[in-house]
User: What shape does this take?
Amino acid sequence: MVVDCDRESEVLDAIARGTAGRAGDIRDHLASCASCAEAAAIAAALRADDRARLRDAHLPAAGTLWWRATIRARAEAARTVSQPITLAQGIAAACAIGLAFGLAGMAWQWLPTASITDMVGALERRDELAAAFAPVLQHALPLALGLAACLLIAPLALYFALADD
Assistant: This one.
């Protein structure tokens, strides 16, 4: 921006404050300086446009503003509260996937891999496999039910503990 006159910033400040018409030295300068007169005309037009927009602006009712702020605060609180729950669900899913892969790995070792005759022999040994897995299944079922109960109850407990209403 090229400034032609040293007093242009002073003139623009006076117009922004609305004191340009009352100050005699600024009025005299505007009459003698074409650059400042042009800048003053543009600034006055912009100021008038700003005043018109402020007059035409319609603010919502206070109740509407309060309602929107309340809704926004509740949404932010819900987002904040759901972060630990999402983390716990992710950890639980990772544990379940790890457990499934571990059980699949254990089962893979017990599967017959040679021929059909070996598979038939393994089917005949299914009682041995069932006997081998019986202690694991006896302890795994209560453990799985306990973990499932914790995963179901923990979010509900957090919800009731952190609810404001």
